[in-house]
């Protein structure tokens, strides 16, 4: 079942075209990633889907409803974690859950949410005193307070240390395991690789690529690089099936070709009695693909 | 309704947990009033238009409580909500803007009334001050002054870029008005120049709207008109601003 449909979404702020013809679909039960650099139009896209902004053009459907005209119905059935959205410093954890659970008649009792998201111990603590990881758990609990069918998580792991990020990933998988569709906005590639079933790469308001993380990697960089040490001349490898190029310098051999090249090269070597100990295979990562896709230098010293 | 009650209760708790707001709403007016009672006593004086200084100041400080809640507590609170994305978060959960606004108005009115009540209780028990002469008119003046100042407080909270800016602007508005509007030295003791400045300060009108009927001089219709105008202007601008969010 299709949970979200976006067709030709456009949104302009003054002179800036934030979203320029974005289209994608999200299926029930998946973790869908929206990946892109800062300012790519990711947040604007999900804010339109949550009925927080009115699109200039395009057709949006969330749970078969138009979020622009059926704001309340849509918001009742979705959960939100907004970018840069915090709680008052002196609000206590239980008060936040109690307040947000009183918004909707659906959903579990807030005391159950405390237990589910391991917030029992900090129920009486103020928001300001929580650690980054505890805040994320509270935000996740608040996003699930109305028992939503879809949740939008916008930069949930921003500013977390690596350990807390891994824990946040577990939280996201847990949400999906409860049967909730997750739309994950992020600019971290490892997050997409670890979590997302499918991903849309957005840059300058346009979808640059759409598919599973694996599809993206394969479509953009089908080549793999095989490296090993061998002091015999192995120029003959060039005639092995699928091998594109062979380089050998000072005993280091680099073979490049599409995916099947790995077992074929290995088999050919073994057949000739060559068994290298350090054979390494490098596939293009999502990061390579991403940096190719987005339209800006990977690093420029003038960037702050 | 359930949501509105929770929201109002949470708003009230958050206010009570904010030391600056509590100090300026409850402690500051009480302490200053006690000092003024001690300095000027209860003998009617020409400097106070032949009123008793304790009555004069007790009446005036009703308006100081209004200004403290409206200019110091409220703008910081509202600006913090905006700055931290609390408003956006509530909106994403379908909390209508009017639910939040009405909860905040109710809490603010409750605080203004409580702060004023503390002063009246102190003035009547520990000192020999008297209740208003024209009670209904004094209450009316108090109500209009409260609403118009709260509207200004909301507007300030929505216009300030950050909570820190809101706090600075609020303090900057509050302190000179407190000194010059009749809650500091009696108006007649101010120099001509300062008196002219005082005529431009909104708090002067809030003070008069409560004090004139309190001392038995009847309603100050000019003051009520100025305050009503302020309520309409600031309330209208603040509402427009909230709608744009």
Main attributes of the structure:
heterodimer; A: 304 residues; Rossmann fold; Alpha-Beta Plaits; 4-stranded antiparallel β-sheet; 31% helix; elongated; B: 245 residues; mainly alpha; 79% helix; 0% strand
Task: Give a description of the structure.
The complex is a heterodimer of chains A (304) and B (245). Chain A is an alpha/beta fold and 304 residues long. Chain A has 2 domains: 2-218, Rossmann fold (3-Layer(aba) Sandwich), CATH 3.40.50.300; 222-283, Alpha-Beta Plaits, CATH 3.30.70.980. Chain A is 31% helix and 28% strand. In chain A, helix 6 (162-177) links the parallel strand 6 and strand 7. In chain A, helix 3 (93-101) packs across helix 4 and helix 5 (132-143) packs parallel to helix 6 (162-177). The longest helix of chain A is centred in the middle third of the chain and has 16 residues, at 162-177. Chain A is elongated and about 75 Å long. Mean pLDDT of chain A is 87; it is low at 298-304. Chain B has helices spanning 2-16, 19-40, 53-83, 86-92, 97-125, 135-159, 163-180, 192-200, 202-214, 221-244. Chain B has one domain (2-244). Chain A binds chain B through residues 50, 52, 71-72, 75-76, 80, 82, 84-88, 90-91, 95, 98-100, 102-104, 146, and chain B through 2-3, 6-7, 10, 13-14, 17-18, 80-81, 84-86, 88-89, 91-95.
Low-confidence stretches of chain A: 298-304
Strand runs of chain B, count: 0
The whole-angstrom Rg of chain B is 18 Å
Oligomer: heterodimer
- Give the CA-CA distance, first to last residue of chain A: 44 Å
Number of strands of chain A: 13
Mean pLDDT of chain B: 92
Per CATH, the class of the largest domain in chain A reads Alpha Beta
Total number of helices of chain A: 10
CATH superfamily of the largest domain in chain A: P-loop containing nucleotide triphosphate hydrolases
Unreliably modeled segments of chain B: none
Say what the CATH topology of the largest domain in chain A is. Rossmann fold
- Distance between the amino and carboxyl termini of chain B: 23 Å
Instruction: Give the helix level of chain A as a range of percent.
Output: 25-40%
Shape assignment of chain B: globular
């Amino acid at each position: 079942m299709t949970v979200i449909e976006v067709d030709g979404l456009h949104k302009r702020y003054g002179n800036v075209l934030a979203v320029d013809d974005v289209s994608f679909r999200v299926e029930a039960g998946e973790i869908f990633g929206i990946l892109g650099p800062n300012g790519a139009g990711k947040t604007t896209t999900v804010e339109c889907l949550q009925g927080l902004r009115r699109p200039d053009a395009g057709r949006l459907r969330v749970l078969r409803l138009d979020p622009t005209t059926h704001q309340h119905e849509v918001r009742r059935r979705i959960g939100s974690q907004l970018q840069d959205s915090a709680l008052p410093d002196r609000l206590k954890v239980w008060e936040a859950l109690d307040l947000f659970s009183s918004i909707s008649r659906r959903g579990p009792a807030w005391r159950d949410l405390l237990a589910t998201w391991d917030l029992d111990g900090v129920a009486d603590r103020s928001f300001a005193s929580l650690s980054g990881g505890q805040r994320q758990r509270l935000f996740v609990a608040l996003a699930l307070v109305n028992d939503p069918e879809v949740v939008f998580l916008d930069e949930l792991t921003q500013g977390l240390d690596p350990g807390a990020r891994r824990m946040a990933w577990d939280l996201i998988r847990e949400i999906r395991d409860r049967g909730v569709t997750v739309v994950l906005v992020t600019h971290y590639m490892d997050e997409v690789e670890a979590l997302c079933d499918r991903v849309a790469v957005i840059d300058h308001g346009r979808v640059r690529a759409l598919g599973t993380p694996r599809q993206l990697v394969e479509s953009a960089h089908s080549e793999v690089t095989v490296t090993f040490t061998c002091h015999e001349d192995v120029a003959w490898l060039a005639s092995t099936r699928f091998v594109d190029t062979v380089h050998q310098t000072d005993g280091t051999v680099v073979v490049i070709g599409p995916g099947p090249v790995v077992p074929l090269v290995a088999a050919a070597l073994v057949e000739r009695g060559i068994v290298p100990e350090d054979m390494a295979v490098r596939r293009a990562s999502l990061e390579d693909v991403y940096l190719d896709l987005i339209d800006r230098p990977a690093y420029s010293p003038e960037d702050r | 309704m359930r949501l509105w009650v929770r929201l109002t209760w949470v708003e009230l708790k958050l206010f009570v947990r904010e030391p600056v707001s509590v100090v300026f709403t409850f402690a500051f007016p009480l302490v200053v009033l006690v000092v003024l009672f001690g300095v000027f006593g209860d003998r009617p004086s020409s400097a106070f238009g032949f009123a008793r200084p304790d009555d004069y100041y007790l009446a005036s400080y009703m308006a100081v409580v209004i200004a403290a809640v409206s200019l110091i507590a409220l703008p910081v609170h509202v600006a913090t909500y905006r700055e931290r994305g609390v408003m956006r978060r509530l909106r994403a959960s379908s909390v209508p803007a009017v639910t939040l606004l009405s909860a905040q108005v109710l809490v603010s009115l409750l605080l203004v009334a409580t702060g004023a009540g503390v002063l009246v209780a102190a003035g009547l028990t520990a000192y020999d001050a008297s209740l208003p002469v024209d009670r209904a008119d004094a209450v009316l003046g108090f109500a209009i002054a409260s609403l118009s100042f709260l509207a200004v407080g909301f507007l300030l909270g929505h216009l300030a870029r950050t909570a820190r800016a809101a706090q600075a602007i609020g303090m900057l508005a509050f302190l000179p008005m407190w000194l010059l509007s009749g809650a500091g030295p009696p108006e007649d003791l101010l120099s001509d120049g300062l008196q002219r400045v005082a005529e431009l300060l909104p708090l002067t009108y809030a003070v008069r709207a409560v004090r004139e009927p309190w001392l038995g001089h009847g309603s100050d219709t000019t003051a009520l008109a100025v305050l009503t105008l302020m309520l309409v202007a600031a309330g209208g601008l603040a509402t427009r601003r909230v709608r744009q969010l």
